[in-house]
Amino acid sequence: MIIRDQLILDIDNDLQELIKARDIGVIYVYREETGEPEPGPCIEDIDLPDPLIEALERRGIRRLYRFQYDAYKSILNGENVVITAGTGTGKTEAFLLPILRKIYEKRTPKPQAMLVYPTKALARDQLQRINDYLGYGVFSAAVYDGDTPRKIRQKISANPPDIVVTNPDMIHVGLVLSPTIRRFVKDSRFMVVDELHVYEGVFGSHVKAVFERINRYRRNNPPQYIGSSATIGNPREHGETLFGVPVKVIEGPLRRRGIAYHVLVSAGRLSRWTVTAALASVLARRGLRFIVFVDSQQMAELIARIAWRSYGVDIMVHRAGLPADERKMIESKLRAGEISGVAATPTLELGIDIGFLDAVIMAAPPPSFAKYLQRAGRAGRRGRKGYVFTVLADDPIDAYYERNPKRYFEQEIPPLYMDPENEEVLRIHLLALLLEQGRIRRDGLKGVWLRVADRLRYERLVSWVGPYIYPNYRLARKVFMEYMSIRGSGPQVVIYDVDEKNIVGYRELPQAVLDLHPDAVYLLNRRIYKSIEIDVDKKIARVKRLPDDTPYYTRPLYTVDLVDYSILASRTSSRGIPLAYAWVKLSISVEGYIVRNYWETEKAGIKYWFDRPVTYTYNTKALLLKYPENPEWDYMSNAEAFHAIEHALISAARPVCGAALGEMGGISYPSGDIVIYDGAPGGSGLAKLLFERFEKAEEIAYEIVSKCDCEDGCPRCIYSPYCGNNNQVLSRRKAAYVLGNILKKGAIKTVEPLKNKYGKPIV
Predict the structure, then answer these.
(1) Which of 271, 329, 230, 120 is CA-nearest to residue 342?
(2) Which residue numbers delimit the Helicase ATP-binding domain (predicted)?
(3) Other Cβ atoms closer than 10 A to 749
(4) Torsion, CA 232, CA 233, CA 234, CA 235, rounded to 10
(5) Could you give the strand order of the β-sheet that contains 673-678, starting from the edge strand earlier in sequence?
(6) CB-CB contact of 93 with 278 (8 Å)
(7) This prediction's pTM
């Protein structure tokens, strides 16, 4: 590795001096230099109205990029399009200019366009940018969502603007409860969905169902759909799945002109959170402005806490669920340079204007390379040099990329995923559809929608009368109001502070059972709580505040049982491994927990067991597979091999499928049967993607277990922080032996997964 940038050398030296550990520091640097995107025509040559030309000139834009002009022409031609390009490359202009020209040419009942953003904060941020183009009252735009004051909503309803800026949650609820939203949806010629890459997993399944409802509502006059996104692996497939219509894909550059240094930093044997906090303090002391990205609220809180307590650097936390005023205050302080940085969940991955940033720190490799590019694009914009630091620690995928750093920057962008047949999601949307329309014909429902209708009839939420299905209004409306969130598919557990006697947060099932079991330590809003009890039936967890200097955390000890399953698709892998994609019913039982100090290893700690386990049962989707047993091994040896393979395959699903840590779980049996399931109730689409891309995941799993230099298992190969039995019954060597034989010779005999399974399940 040759570092040609003095600042990186200085930061590396500062980091090693601060931590005083030889194995901490920069291990690889990739220099990226990007030229100006391909130019298109001058703005005077594309027949724009004078107010738009003046607005572009005020922003210093004299010429469009080629991809912007291609989008401009396609939208004017009435085509449904998906525009993909990197952060800060001008996607907004690509869709906004043709829409404003159409509005200028033909004045029709307002609004003429709905711009849909995934968060309320982003909608308000983008409104400021949109207003730059509206010019002297020629056009109008306004945000209409749950944070819009009632009086302003009434004014917008009475006199709608040309463009309504909102979010999918508002459309989802409004189609049922708001005549104003129904009118806006009915009148809009354009339906624009920005940040399209966010709509994956369960959230994507919900939003797809919302657009299915819109398409039914506007059966004879569908809107023109426009999607805008960072670069994704399957833009056409994803756009057509989400919108339900054919789309044209227009691709722009990965990033704007400039230089970016992508730096891989080894945490050695230390916690990635400690090294990330230390790196943030180094950047702050050098006067650099930065974001630290993590993938969970708990880790954002932890990094901010370590940075302050260990290094004296005050890093604020930016995450979903913060009060709007607090979130805006943090963004304003970062934009103005009043704070050096923030620890953020993916809330700041999106296009919120936070001014110029020198650097981005990723506390761990993001779930997918597309998300890496999106986050990396926040640094070094506006023609200035940017620095992107990614911390690699004791983790199988981190170790994989530490051995092969070039592969990290050469990897493909995986496809986005969702499960359009998630029955937990469709249950709510079919209820919504019935509440909107009053009744629907049974013969208008096909496949999974019909199965869901039958389930609703069994639950007495709907009635079948002749050829029609009717909602049982009182009960159906009550259920809709209880489960109307589209940010998940499981019921929400209310977190209640017994001392303060107030609600401090929410956690979705089944994750709530793992995070809030009795005596669990739970971080929230930079505070530490201890769970007193969780009542799954009443969906409430009672917690008590712990001192801020509490030095320990907890991990659940649990089992997962496969209660039932039904195969949806099956195939045999190229190496002879039988695979099936299936609906499964799982029962999670938390039987105890382990208490561990922050500096202890993954297998250390003190175990405690409950007299009665905390149990939750739910439906999801899973990949089922069957490896051949080794007849020369005993029961325990086979169990050790297959449990380790299960862990390695779940790790491999991260680069292959874009799965985040904790989004997939697994069960293995000594018989060689393995179940890898979606953590989200109803399914997220990850298991299906792994079913389709299994061969690549199997290759990476083999490298994970065969290239580690540990004795027979460690956090860098097969240990998992989510293992239900504290990483027992695992053998890296035996897993490598099984996978090595399969990759070299293939499987000779194949048996349908779970057909002959035996033994106690291991998770």
Answers:
(1) 329
(2) 72-250
(3) 8
(4) 30
(5) 552-572, 578-597, 606-626, 673-678, 664-668
(6) no
(7) 0.90
CA distance 548 to 144: 39
- Domains, the chain, ordered by start: 6-34+258-410 (3.40.50.300), 41-251 (3.40.50.300), 423-482 (1.10.10), 492-550 (no CATH), 556-745 (no CATH)
Cβ 652 vs Cβ 573: under 8 Å: no
Measured distance CA(443)–CA(439) in Å, rounded: 12
d(C-alpha 307, C-alpha 315), whole Å: 7
Listing DSSP states for 151-197 in one string gives HHHHHHHHS--SEEEE-HHHHHHHHHH-HHHHHHHHH-SEEEE-SGG
Q: Residues 289, 341: contact at Cβ < 8 Å?
A: yes
| Helical (H) or strand (E) element with 69 | helix 66-76
What six digits make up the tokens of 627? 């490896």
- Please, what's the b/e burial string for 154-167 (b: 16 or more CB within 10 A of its CB; e: otherwise)? eebeeebbbbbbbb
- Asked if 204 and 685 count as a contact pair (C-beta separation under 8 A), the reply is yes
Q: Is 145 helix (H, G, I), strand (E, B) or coil?
A: coil
Query: Is the peptide bond between 510 and the residue preceding it cis, with omega within 30 degrees of 0?
Result: yes
Angle, helices 50-58 vs 120-134, to 10°: value is 110
- Rounded to whole angstroms, how far apart are CA atoms 695 and 649? 10
685: left (phi over 0), alpha (psi -120 to 50) or beta: left
Contact between residue 303 and residue 276 where contact means Cβ atoms under 8 Å apart: yes
Rounded to whole angstroms, the Cα distance separating 176 from 210 reads 11
CA distance 723 to 220: 52
Element (H, E) at 535: strand 527-535
Cα–Cα dist 530/526, whole Å: 14
* Kind plus residue range of the DSSP H or E element containing 125: helix 120-134
Q: State the Cα torsion 129-132-135-141 to the nearest 10°.
A: 10
- For the stretch 320-324, contacts whose Cβ atoms lie closer than 8 Å and that sit 24 or more positions apart, written own/partner, are 320/119, 320/345, 320/347, 321/297, 321/505, 324/120, 324/121, 324/147
Divide the 763 residues of the chain into consecutive groups of 10 and give the mean pLDDT of each group: 78 89 88 88 92 89 95 97 88 94 85 93 84 79 93 95 96 96 95 94 96 93 94 93 97 82 92 93 93 86 88 84 75 83 81 77 91 86 82 93 93 90 95 95 92 95 96 95 88 93 91 96 86 96 94 94 96 96 98 86 82 96 96 96 98 92 94 96 96 97 96 94 92 97 87 90 88
**Tokens matching residue 733:** 């060597």
Residue type, 567: I
| 350's tokens | 């999106």
Cα–Cα distance between 682 and 421 in angstroms, integer?
Answer: 8
Our CA angle for 601, 605, 606, nearest 5°, is: 170
Q: Where are the alpha helices (DSSP H) in 286-422?
A: 297-311, 324-336, 369-376, 396-403, 405-410
C-alpha 674: how far from chain center? 25
Q: Are 365 and 409 in contact (CB under 8 A)?
A: no
As beta bridge partners, residue 553 has: 596
Continuous H helices in 364-422: 369-376, 396-403, 405-410
Tokens of 493: 């557990």
Closest CA to 266 of 31, 28, 30: 28
Give, in degrees to the nearest 5, the angle at Cα 262 between 260 and 264: 165
End-to-end CA distance of the chain: 40
Taking the C-alpha atoms of residue 723 and residue 507, their distance in angstroms, rounded to an integer, is 20
